[in-house]
Design brief:
By secondary structure, the protein is α+β, with helices and mostly antiparallel strands. It is about 35% helix and about 30% strand. α1 runs antiparallel to α2. The termini are far apart.
């Protein structure tokens, strides 16, 4: 590759406008987990968490927060982006939501603290990454992202082991 990544992110445009805050928060967690996984796979960490919201009238807002230390941990990214989302306050129904990490650097190059607050989560997420590589990306995910079996269509049911 000739150019370095400037950001790593995910976003989704909904078929209908979404007003359900719990659904939007679950989507933020899903995207943050994906962003963390992509960062780890690329050997990168990011310092700036970015939230993107687009409404039915196509008005788009972004909110960002720069962290003291860079991270590749989806759980940390999710916490930060959820705080950004909550800080927006009341808003119109959402058509698009996205999570992005910026200010990327090679993993481990920005460590300034005496200890790593994300160490336990990073280890757990690396295990999830390795399970995903072996069995498929959605095999292990946060429990809050699981749907009850009756909400899954026949083509989306997971095999029982």
């Amino acid at each position: 590759r000739d150019t370095a990544e400037k950001s790593v992110g995910h976003e989704v445009t909904f078929e209908v406008d979404i007003t359900d805050t719990s659904l939007l928060r679950r989507e933020l967690l899903r995207q943050a987990s994906q962003v963390g996984s992509r960062l780890r796979a690329s050997g990168l960490e990011g310092r700036t968490v970015v939230l993107k919201l687009r409404y039915a009238d196509f008005a788009t807002i972004t909110r960002s927060r720069t962290l003291t230390e860079a991270t590749d941990v989806g759980r940390r990214i999710a916490e930060e982006v959820r705080e950004l989302y909550d800080a927006v306050g009341p808003h119109p129904p959402v058509r698009l939501i996205g999570v992005r990490m910026e200010q990327l650097a090679e993993a481990g190059t920005n460590s300034t603290g005496l200890w790593d607050d994300d160490e336990d989560w990073r280890g757990a997420e690396r295990v999830i990454d390795s399970v995903g590589e072996r069995f498929g990306g959605d095999f292990v995910r946060p429990a809050s992202l699981l749907k009850p079996a009756n909400e899954l269509g026949p083509s989306k049911r997971r095999p029982h082991l």
